[in-house]
Design a protein that fits this description.
Layout (H helix, E strand, L loop, with lengths): L14 H14 L8 H5 L2 H12 L4 H36 L7 H30 L4 H24 L3 H14 L4 H11 L6 H21 L4 H10 L7 H23 L3 H23 L3
Length: 292
């Protein structure tokens, strides 16, 4: 759900808003490429349960506890987080016609969405830790194996489709703005041609994190539950200087590109962005008002 979510990704007024909002908020809401927030969110608890069970080989009581904790998270998220998203999306919609598409404004939005993301990850981690600490050695080994398979699968996708980042950026930009103009498409081509993203470095960092997490689960050193929580909430603590530099460059590049596109947005694109933001805000409010 990081860069964004997540994660990854990121966006203030037109493309600015979608860059940060698009990749970040979309991850936050766990929507990915889905077109209907209400349809997807209604199945969020099932999706989370299913996804977690892909990694965890749980037994009877453990499965029950996992389902209970996922339900708790879904209820908390619906009641406390969706209203926050709705307010923020409406705030961004009100900014669309304001000429403030600077990288600095985009950074503010990115930080706010990161805060939304952090709140959800912290709550989810606190709810799932009691499940994780019950894992026996065989289950921990299976978790490590499942994580390895998923990591290798992700790396192969990136290696096979080297223009994946460009396609994702265009897809997200068009979701928020509608069709890009030829000038805007040229901006994307020019900026992403100099991208510093390296899927091998990303994979190496993910492996480093997984190894640290699995080792802590196995060894259970003093204070290990706090260590596990810290790893879940702040994986950046294990980033190497080289990887952190790459991530900082990627975010700065996205902000600069978003600012450029926003400044060149047409009246039709700004209206499309405003409508989309308000529609998402309305969906969040409708979902928040529903009983779980």
């Amino acid at each position: 759900m990081s860069t964004a979510s997540l994660p990854g990704c990121r966006q203030p007024t037109a493309p600015a808003t979608r860059l940060a909002i698009l990749l970040l908020v979309a991850h936050l809401l766990l929507l990915g490429g889905c077109s209907s927030i209400r349809l997807v969110y209604g199945h969020l608890d099932w999706w989370m349960d299913h996804t977690l069970n892909k990694y965890l080989d749980l037994k009877g009581a453990q499965k029950d506890l996992l389902s209970q904790r996922v339900d708790e998270f879904h209820r908390w998220h619906r009641q406390t987080q969706l209203p926050r998203y709705a307010d923020y999306l409406d705030q961004l919609a009100a900014e669309v016609d304001t000429p403030n598409a600077t990288p600095a404004r985009l950074l503010e939005i990115e930080r706010q969405v990161d805060e939304f993301w952090h709140s959800s990850i912290a709550m989810l981690s606190d709810l799932l830790l009691p499940v994780l600490v019950q894992l026996d050695e065989a289950q921990i080994q299976q978790l490590a194996e499942n994580a390895r398979k998923e990591r290798e699968k992700s790396l192969k996708k990136w290696q096979k489709e080297r223009n994946k980042r460009e396609k994702e950026f265009r897809k997200q930009a068009e979701r928020w703005l509608g069709d890009l103009t030829p000038e805007q498409s040229a901006m994307v081509d020019r900026e992403l041609a100099t991208t510093t993203f390296d899927p091998e470095r990303r994979d190496a960092q993910r492996q480093r994190w997984t190894n640290a997490f699995i080792q802590t689960l196995q060894d259970k050193p003093a204070g290990y539950q706090k260590t596990l929580r810290d790893l879940l909430i702040n994986p950046q603590s294990l980033w190497s200087d080289d990887y952190r530099r790459m991530q900082d460059e990627l975010r700065a590049q996205a902000r600069n590109l978003g600012s450029e596109i926003l400044k060149s947005s047409t009246p039709e694109q700004r209206q499309h962005l405003k409508t989309t933001l308000r529609d998402y805000a309305a969906d969040c409010r409708i979902l928040a008002a529903q009983k779980p």
